[in-house]
Design goal:
Blueprint lengths: L5 E4 L2 E4 L11 H4 L7 H17 L2
Antiparallel strand pairs: 1-2
């Protein structure tokens, strides 16, 4: 791959390719487990829905 951005490391010029998610950072590949506060999300949704439904 090539890009407009280049970086020189130890005298060798490399193209810089920016990736948001890679196999080095994604939890599915790294085995990292993340806690998801699903109860808080449900409460937040219900609170917002009630406010919209009741016109508050």
């Amino acid at each position: 791959m090539k890009s407009k951005k280049k970086e020189t490391i130890d005298g060798v010029e490399y193209y810089v390719i920016v990736q948001d998610v890679t196999s080095d950072s994604h939890p599915a590949y790294t085995g990292e487990k993340r806690f998801v506060d699903s109860a808080g999300r449900v409460e937040k949704f219900n609170k917002k829905f009630r406010r919209l439904r009741h016109g508050q």
